[in-house]
């Protein structure tokens, strides 16, 4: 177990952020931002997409999981603080090739955990195949469909969170 931890830590230090982030060029980030904006016009949910190349030294020393980091960012970015409790964070940790989705209590009460996990595994499979943009956009479509089903757009639909992907 400790060998795996040491290898993981070394991997995070050896792979520079710019190398890991090459899979998300500006053109891809723009298309993701546009997809999020279009998505949010169809429902009362709020989406955030965050890509992190490697984990911080603090996270590595405390063996922070991708899930724990996603929950931390969910809080820091205020995804939990939307009017309808319908915020969804898609978190991508590139060096470990992990994807996590954290959904606020309003949508989580209506959607089973297995749905979110299935989306995460499909994104990871797409990324393994080198389809970063397509895998992300397909996942956003899945999340859009479930948010539109449970939180359809009404006349008043404020954009509460930034649509641009976050790069950590």
From TrEMBL:
It comes from the Bacteria. This is TPM domain-containing protein. PANTHER family: BLL7265 PROTEIN, UPF0603 PROTEIN YGCG. Pfam families: TPM_phosphatase. Residues 28-145 form the TPM domain. The lineage of its organism: Bacteria, Pseudomonadati, Pseudomonadota, Betaproteobacteria, Rhodocyclales.
């Amino acid at each position: 177990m400790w060998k795996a931890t040491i290898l993981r830590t070394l991997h995070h230090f050896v792979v520079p952020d710019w190398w890991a982030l090459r899979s998300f060029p500006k053109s891809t980030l723009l298309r993701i931002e546009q997809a999020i904006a279009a998505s949010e016009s169809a429902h009362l949910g709020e989406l955030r997409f965050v890509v992190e190349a490697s984990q911080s030294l603090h996270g590595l020393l405390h063996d922070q999981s991708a899930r724990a980091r996603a929950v931390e960012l969910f809080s820091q970015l205020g995804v939990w603080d939307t009017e309808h409790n319908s915020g969804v964070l898609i978190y991508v940790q590139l060096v470990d090739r992990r994807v996590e989705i954290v959904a606020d209590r309003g949508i989580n009460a209506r959607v089973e955990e297995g749905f979110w996990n299935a989306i995460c595994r499909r994104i990871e499979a797409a990324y393994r195949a080198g389809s970063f943009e397509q895998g992300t956009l397909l996942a956003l479509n899945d999340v859009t469909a479930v948010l539109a089903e449970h939180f359809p757009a009404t006349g008043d639909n404020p954009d509460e969170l930034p649509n641009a992907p976050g790069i950590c």
